Amino acid sequence: MGLGQGPGRDHLSDFGDIFAGYEAVRARLPEAGPGGACAPARDLSEIADGFDIFLLDAFGVLNVGDGAIPGAVERVHALRDAGKRVLVVSNAAGFPHAKLMEKYDRLGFGFAPEDVVTSRKALLAALTGEAGRHWGVMANPDLGRADLEGLDLRFLGDDPADYEAAEGFLLIGSAIWTEARQDRLVRALRDRPRPVLVGNPDLAAPRENGASREPGHWAHALADATGVAPRFHGKPFADIFDLAFDRLGHRPGRRALMVGDALHTDVLGAQVAGVASALVTGHGLLKGRDVAGAIAASGIRPDFVVETT
């Protein structure tokens, strides 16, 4: 298929629109590094000897929706058995950490809690200097306030008063966000600009029946409509990698491999962090797509292109 003509808020189930959406907001993303050789490999076992540390994206690498990708559980355990350190580095900001751990345990991955690093954690780390501010939060209230304890917040819904009262906005999870709520947020920021912090820079995430619109999608639309510049936390920005390196106790450089299904978040983020990258093409955003064309059009070149985890 072609690479698409434009982002379009209502059409992010199509890869061309997702790709075009990322390209349209490149000015808000970090600059790409020189890139890699795009060396082909069947799976991570073919390149594992070159790395000590594996940083794995979740959607499109470990799972699609609620199901594990075939062979992913076995691969993670094989890497550990070979003495590799395996961490999850994910933009899954919408879920409390405990919920993610329940999911990974149910799927059989067996990650330790400290080995799951999310953009939710990166966002919360950034809020340490924002004490006392009252936040309006884009998130599913049914998931509760776990990890958000200590913040003065209210979940944004259909009451305009909540948007007016907020002193800043946190875009964490968009599963129940609507166009009407987006319009309320746009109006509120036009009337009175306030800080907007984004806990998931993704425009879309692969699901069983297409791709969902993620907080990054709404944040960029918000910036276009209001001129308010969001502050992004998570891939491809450096802060989430800094958290991962804190877990490791050092900056691993090229002995670490970031594995993901997205050029504009996983591969670009790896270049920002100074680690190697592997692009997974058999699942997630690039499944069945013109991978070489996407790499050429974006100029974001991974070190490896692998079919599956």
Automatic annotation (TrEMBL):
<dbReference type="InterPro" id="IPR006357">
    <property type="entry name" value="HAD-SF_hydro_IIA"/>
</dbReference>
<dbReference type="GO" id="GO:0016787">
    <property type="term" value="F:hydrolase activity"/>
</dbReference>
<dbReference type="InterPro" id="IPR036412">
    <property type="entry name" value="HAD-like_sf"/>
</dbReference>
<dbReference type="InterPro" id="IPR023214">
    <property type="entry name" value="HAD_sf"/>
</dbReference>
<keyword id="KW-0378">Hydrolase</keyword>
<dbReference type="Pfam" id="PF13242">
    <property type="entry name" value="Hydrolase_like"/>
</dbReference>
<protein>
    <submittedName>
        <fullName>HAD-IIA family hydrolase</fullName>
    </submittedName>
</protein>
<dbReference type="Pfam" id="PF13344">
    <property type="entry name" value="Hydrolase_6"/>
</dbReference>
